[in-house]
Amino acid sequence: MNHYAAGKSNSNAHAVKARPFRVTIVHPCVGRSVGMKKYIRTWQMEPIPVAMIAALLPADVERCFYDDRLEEIPYDEPTDLVAISVETYTAKRAYQIASEYRRRGVPVVMGGFHATLCPDEVMKYCESIVIGEAEAVVPELIDDYRHGSPKRIYEKRGDDNQLIRPPMTVSPDRSIFAGKKYLPIRLVEFARGCRFKCDFCAIQSYFSSTHNHRPIETVVEEIKRVRKPRQLIFFIDDNLTSNLPAAKEFMRAIEPLGIRWVSQTAINVAFDDEALALMKRSGCQGVLVGFESLEPEALKQMNKGFNLMKGGPAQALANFRKFNLRIYGTFIFGYDHDTPLTFERSVNFAIDQGMFIAAFNHITPFPGTPLYDRMKAEGRLLYDAWWLDDRYRYNMIPYTPKNMDSEELADRCVKARRDFYRWRSIFRRSTDRVHWRRPWMFFNFFLINAMHQWDIEGRNGLPLGDANWSGKLISVDGTNLTAVNNGSLSV
User: Fold this and answer.
1) Does residue 197 share a domain with residue 139?
2) 292 bridge partner residues
3) Are 117 and 156 in the same domain?
4) pLDDT by residue (tens digit) across 19-50?
């Protein structure tokens, strides 16, 4: 009997205290095809959110962690509570995992982006749901489960009914990663959220276009503790420079550490020479910048017209090059003003500008975003919930574009990647001084581009959820649920 079940009975109160309360944390994979032996290597980075959950648990709670991408989950191992962080892409697999534990009488709590944006759906598969950031509620949640009196919903809201942004004072507990073979890049978090309100972005929906950062001294101490010689650090912030004064202060603080780092930023930082100088001096090797489109009307529709500020992408890239910063440029297609010429123009621009690497993807309407709501209102979604539909595969188009059909949009995205990662393009981009000025980075330029060339279509067609799983989805009331073609569920 698990502690949760025992805790409901006063006669078993002493048994509950006989051994430590145990929490099992599970990180679900996106999906797995039939017979798939090895998981996609580029998707095997440390999952920092689960390390944060582990750090928030009381010291006397026993914890264990399983990464569904790397290992089998021992469902029969004794535990009192299972915690799963759910993203839209991992939702289907998360529900499969939850059903396996619920069938064994173990309660499940779910949180994460998808839980906050789609609470009614997620609540079907778990005893409790965390809405918002875990720091605000985990101690209360654990105490409730220990005493056999859990709530269905855990959230903290202010007087304005907005979710409270708790202080980010806790550092992740990376001890749970021991023995797991993640990619050799260290992930560190400085801040969460972004102040911009891009139409397609679930980040702005989740955080209500706010930005909150950890105490700088806490992050500096964490870097000192976890870094390894010559290891690259990836600051996983959604937009490192959303609060530019705080970002500058942070970069001044890490400058003496002598680290090498990369992160993500909006285009506005390219027009602040002080920020660019600080980035370079503090060890920045390059940044991901969401250019998204070169079409003014498309940028306007995605609420990202600021990308055209002060000369736009070309001038921004010239400024980045002046400070020897490499650029990972991202482009998205499928907005209403995109045509076949949009793809060619974007690829040629990325090649001419000598980008280190680039991504060319179609937009995906994530639930909770203005994009999703608009497409749903216009009747353009091809599935009620594409992330649950058995017909959906990774990189499929889940909506009807305006100026081309779904298949053409998908094909043109793949062609854009092929054109950008042709050897002719790679050699041409390698001549940019920012790539060859250091032999080590010049070598890595070719290595990284070759990896992207090999992976152009590697993820296409991956099912969401584990196609090898033959169980039944179980709702919290014990009903067996079966997914049907439109992504809804039937008994």
Assistant:
1) no
2) 331
3) yes
4) 799 999 999 999 999 988 888 887 889 999 99
